[in-house]
Structures are given as structure tokens and as C-alpha cells.
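Here we describe the complex-level prediction in full. Unlike the single-chain runs in Section 2.1, the two entities below were treated as one system.
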Amino acid sequence: QKEVEQNSGPLSVPEGAIASLNCTYSDRVSQSFFWYRQYSGKSPELIMSIYSNGDKEDGRFTAQLNKASQYVSLLIRDSQPSDSATYLCAARSGTYKYIFGTGTRLKVLA
Amino acid sequence: GAGVSQSPSNKVTEKGKDVELRCDPISGHTALYWYRQSLGQGLEFLIYFQGNSAPDKSGLPSDRFSAERTGGSVSTLTIQRTQQEDSAVYLCASSLEVLAGSYEQYFGPGTRLTVT
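The structure predicted for the assembly as a whole is:
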């Protein structure tokens, strides 16, 4: 099993809908997780971090961490075409290393 | 405040030439990372600096790759005798003191390297 796994997509949702992006992880990574958004041709932009079990909300974004099931999710409410991008899940591994998933491509249809 | 900056933004070089890529982290960020992202691929960890020291160089793909950081700030990634497989986007990221518990990384715009 890879340390951090994501479905490559594309995930297509209509404008205004909730987009749900998922990421699973192995025992080899720690309990610190991050979601990044990457537009085509651009660098990753940090959206949220989550360290504790449960939900964390920031505007239209909610990160969910479920340690028992070893998954972390990102929900985007009221999805907009401008949310169309690749979303990267990342996890800490050890003291300083970060492991990134290969990303899920999201398409929000107007 | 100013984010992470990288230069050049684009670099085209001939196979066999050496290149230097520069990263200027966010002021006050002591941890600095280099990653490589090939087309359609995930981020590949290259090297990590805490201050000026690099405790982990295991991600460097070969001995043609080297990196240094001076004054706890600017870092340079050097690729000697470039090969076509080195073509990728090289990303730099920084964060506050990792060992003290601040884990969030912020990325620069990247350098797109093309080896012809």
C-alpha cells in the first residue's frame, strides 16, 4: 500500500454542489495531514491542515480526519468553476518528511 | 508578506550543462524543502534543510544533484551534467521550525527546467 493514496479522477460535480475528495493513508505516516490545491501550471497552494480526529471548517472547505479508518477528506461546499483544479493530499512521515498523493482532479461544471 | 520566491521561473538548457536553481524562503522560516514534479506526476521529495544543515539528502536522485543553504535563508539546487530525464518543475517550500511543531509548508512558484 502506498503511504498516501488518492483517486486520480476526474471528479466532476455541477456548480453549487458539494465536492468530496478522499485520501487514504498507511501506518507509515503520522497524524498530520494537509490539503493543497494546484491549478494547471501552478504550484501547490495550502488550503487546510488537520491534525486531530474530526472535522475542521474554513469557509467553504471542511477537512475530515478519521484515524480509525485511516482516511482524510476534503469537502468543498457550493463548488464553483474556479475550484476546478487538482487537489493534493499530504501527510507527515517521521520528523520532517512530507508524503504527497498524486492528486485528484476536480472539474466543476457550470 | 512576501511568499517563497524561486528563480529562474523557466530554464532551458542543453544536455550536459550545469544548472543552478534558487529558492528564497519566507522570512523567518527555518525549514526548507526541495521537490520535483514531473508532468502528471506527484511531488518527489529531494532534500530538506533545517537552518543550514541538510539532515536528509536521501531524495536526491543521483550524485549530479546537490544543494546548499547559506545564512539560514537562500538555497541553491545544482544539477550537474543535466540529462533529459531531469526535465521537470522544481519546487521549493518553506515552513516555520519543523521540530517545534509548525508543520505547514508554503510553496514557491517553481522553476520549470527543460533539458534539450
